[in-house]
Amino acid sequence: MTDGPWLVVGLGNPGAKYAGNRHNVGQMVLDELARRHGATFGSGGGRLLSRPQAVVAEARLGVLPGGVPGPRVILAKPTTYMNTSGGPTSALAKYYDVPLERTVLVHDELDIPFADVRLKRGGGEGGHNGLRDTTRALGSKDYVRVRVGVGRPPGRMDAADFVLRDFAKVELKDVPWLVDSAADAVETLVTQGLEQAQLRFHTKA
């Protein structure tokens, strides 16, 4: 699990007006991972592309047996809009020479209940524009997804409108727990592998 770096990308939209949206929960998780490990985001993506399209931070996640520092991880938040997340993700993966099996996208997910976290490799995009663009840019669906449940829109509300709204007041007390749980899922994935992470987070206590 320690051969080469991992790339963990948190999906979202740039700017303060979107910061609290359900669609930005992936970037909230990246902020939590950076906080835990004392990492600071900077415009490292600017030297990789024709213009700055991501902010990045580097960290070692977790501790392996024997007290060995955990794997090196590149944390990245694209500064493009959600539907053009693929370009920065692909450029970062190429620059850091990260293979698909260690490329991870953290994103909001409508198809699992609010506050649940699931992980998978590959599969469809479920109408998620950030995933669709990333699949196109990487030329494969076989990257890893950490899926952060934001629930379904109520009534006949359009899904796009729902994800571009902030969490409801009744949900806000659970959002820190959700972000914390998703950050734990990333750390488990990186240090123990996908199967162990799935076993932990897909099994109800």
- Specify the CATH class: Alpha Beta
Number of domains: 1
Low-pLDDT stretches = none
Question: Going by CATH, what is the homologous superfamily?
Answer: Peptidyl-tRNA hydrolase
Roughly how much helix do the residues carry, as a percent range?
A: 25-40%
CATH fold-level assignment: Rossmann fold
Described by the principal axes of the CA atoms, the overall outline is globular
Number of helices: 7
Instruction: Estimate what percentage of residues fall within beta strands.
Output: 15-25%
Q: What gyration radius follows from the Cα positions, in whole Å?
A: 16 Å
Largest sheet: 6 strands, mixed
With strands numbered from the N-terminus, the spatial order across the biggest sheet is: 2-5-1-6-8-7
